[in-house]
Design goal:
CATH architecture of the largest domain: 3-Layer(aba) Sandwich
Number of strands: 14
Order of helices and strands: EEHHEHEHEHEEEEEHEHEHHEE
Number of helices: 9
Strand content: 25-35%
Largest sheet: 5 strands, mixed
Number of domains: 2
Helix content: 25-40%
CATH topology of the largest domain: Peroxisomal Thiolase, Chain A, domain 1
Radius of gyration: 18 Å
Bound molecules: coenzyme A
Structural class: alpha/beta
Distance between the termini: 25 Å
């Protein structure tokens, strides 16, 4: 087993469903308006998966792009990790199906359940696998078909969520391309965001909003400290895309200098759960340097780390 001093993200790939849905179509079902949705969430539209765009096809498409970008052959993948909160079956998991579709026949494959914090949780796991020598190349995917778990008639959630998949390849590195993770969970508050008996999501929006805006600044500061840098050293801030107001409040609390690009993928793609960070990373294509990633959501779980962008 060959251990490695560090690991890094080699590439990123994205899959966004073909259909874009604007606010008006949703507002009609929940006695809302385009103006209210934009003002309270910053969201203008989101992607909705069609019947042929299931979790496996979306995740496989994103991972195929990431593998091509990294120049890694599917047979050289040691592990496929898939973060999702929208797969209904517990008897099978999605990752083995995606590994088979990719042709990653030598890979371990498992799903990760940390909801909207799933991507940074997965990145910490991938980093540990690579550094320990347990894996060479890890494909980490965040994929969601939130359409399957959101009630179109629920005023608190119907307008927020979208579908899609983002993937990265993590491989060995001589330097620390993925800095130590700062993570945790507050299960005592898990009732604030959970599945109802109907099998759809229910959220105490204002309470989740307050929790998120309180937890983000100290977790972000600890992640910067763990990486040995300050906000001025960042090229980008890529928080989970939950609500533009949460992102804006977090950027303000961190006193980010003007050169730091702040991910705002939520405006056109809504909240895509575990997929939102890799999708937002793909949208910042062309930015190089260090990025602070920060995921938060159901659990209530959170995780953050600084990465070198691919
Ligand atoms: N359309 C129009 N009006 C609505 C509405 C809707 N979809 N939902 C609620 N309202 C009304 C309420 O009835 C309330 O009316 P009132 O003032 O007359 O009582 C008012 O709008 C404010 O409701 P509130 O729930 O306090 O809104 P908010 O400002 O908290 O915004 C969210 C709602 C969901 C956008 C916001 O709470 C949020 O983003 N929370 C965090 C969500 C999140 O990030 N979740 C994922 C974490 S992974």
């Amino acid at each position: 087993m060959r251990t490695s001093p560090g690991s890094r993200i080699l590439s990123v790939g994205a899959y966004r469903p073909r259909t874009r849905v604007g606010n008006d179509a949703i507002a009609a079902l929940i006695d809302s308006s385009d103006e209210w949705i934009r003002r309270r969430s910053g969201i203008e539209s989101r992607r909705r998966a069609a019947d042929d765009e299931d979790l496996v096809t979306m995740a496989t498409a994103a991972a195929t792009k990431a593998l091509a970008g990294a120049g890694v052959a599917p047979r050289d993948v040691s592990a496929v990790l898939l973060a999702t909160m929208s797969y209904r079956s517990r008897a099978t998991t999605v990752a083995p199906l995606v590994a088979a579709a990719l042709g990653a026949t030598n890979a371990a494959a498992m799903d990760l359940g940390a909801a909207c914090a799933g991507f940074p949780y997965g990145l910490a796991t991938a980093d540990a696998l690579v550094r320990s020598g347990a894996a060479d190349n890890v494909v980490l995917i965040g994929a969601e078909r939130m359409t399957d778990i959101v009630d179109d008639h629920d005023r608190g959630t119907a307008f927020l969520f979208g579908d899609g998949a983002g993937a990265v390849v993590v491989g060995p590195s001589e330097t620390l391309g993925i800095s130590p993770v700062v993570w945790g969970a507050d299960g005592a508050k898990s009732d604030l965001l959970r599945y109802a008996e109907t099998g759809t999501l229910r959220m105490a929006g204002p309470e989740v909003f307050r929790w998120a805006t309180a937890v983000i600044p100290p977790v972000a500061e600890r992640a910067l400290e763990a990486a040995g840098i300050t906000a001025a050293d960042l090229a980008a801030f890529i928080p989970h895309q939950a609500n533009l107001r949460i992102t804006t409040a977090a950027a303000r609390a961190l006193c980010l200098p003007p050169h730091v690009r702040v991910a705002t993928d939520v405006i056109t793609n809504g909240n895509t759960g575990a997929a939102s960070i890799p999708l937002a990373m793909a949208a910042l294509n062309g930015t190089s340097g260090r990025a602070l990633l920060l995921g938060f959501g159901a659990g209530l779980a959170y995780a953050a780390q600084v990465v070198e962008l691919p």
